[in-house]
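Q: Give me the 3D complex with alpha-D-galactopyranose.
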Amino acid sequence: MTDVRSWQVPGRVNLVGEHLDYNGGPVLPMAVDKHLTIKARPRDDDQVRVWSQFGTATFTTSVQPGEVDGWAALTAGVVWASASAGPAGGVDLVIESEIPDGAGLSSSAATACGVTMALAELAGRTLTPHEVAAIARRAENDYLGVPVGVMDQLAVVHDGASLVDTRDLSVTPVEVGWGDAGLSLVVIDTNVKHSLAASEYAVRHDECVRAAGTLGLTWLAEAGPDAVLRFDDADVLKKRVRHVVTETTRVRGAVRAIAAGDWSQLGTIFTSSHASLRDDFEVSCAELDAAVEAALEGGALGARMTGGGFGGSAIALAPTAMLLGLREKVVAAFADHDWTPPTLFTVRPTAGAHRLT
Ligand code: GLA
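A: Here is the predicted complex, encoded as structure tokens.
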């Protein structure tokens, strides 16, 4: 198996800036040390064979939208979207992942970006991180029909935390120093499987497009604080606009807090972001709310759901010395409700997608 090459791609958490990436706002995701590995070997024919934890699938390099569904549709979408970058031959792909599936940690973006890199490099092409992200996003938007933004793809192809301007797609690295201050970032996976395709994600996307239209804006994140006054209290769009406007301000505040090492301020921003996602954008769920509340009771400086919502994970910034107590609080809160126990683990910034061998 000498001609097998491999790539490693991280998952991501979003520190703050939720549901802003399809609204032209700033987002602050971070590549984290839960990875997936793609192994790829060229074939002499036009077959694409994929092995993953979900099973095996086979299709051809000329696969079209609608021809593959289920877990392999994403890989088929990448093969289809990659055709725009040039012809590619058949390939055997093995996807091994330690990024929990459906946890809101971007296992889809990691898969799509890793497969994009593998296909390009086997065909002798090197893509820029932005080109990888664009192809991977197109697979989700145009093959799967899920209108995701570009945050997750850009997050997993860049190192560590990044401030991403989703209007001009500039990516600025952000050093996060909370570890030196004795703090850890904890992921609380609620084990409520989130699925963007099956959630109201597309509904929120449409609501934002409609609100921007009402305001005469291309991007809703361009709206100023007065924009909410243009909507009746009874109009659900008012709440959606308020989330986008306040979340945009929170990202700016978070960048300042991180630069200043003001971790209690960053925590406060996390927690108010969660309240906005729960009450105004309405993308949280009972388990995420309970995880956030219990983490705060357990000593976190702040906590919030991360990613698309409707299940998945919360993050909490907490003193490392208090992690055991925090875990107990969160596990007890879930037990009180008879919910499936949550999974907690700490994450650190890590390298973006890269070739391993
Ligand atoms: C999902 C999508 C992203 C982004 C987030 C919400 O992770 O894939 O594009 O919209 O939800 O911030």
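A quick observation: The chain has a mean pLDDT of 97.
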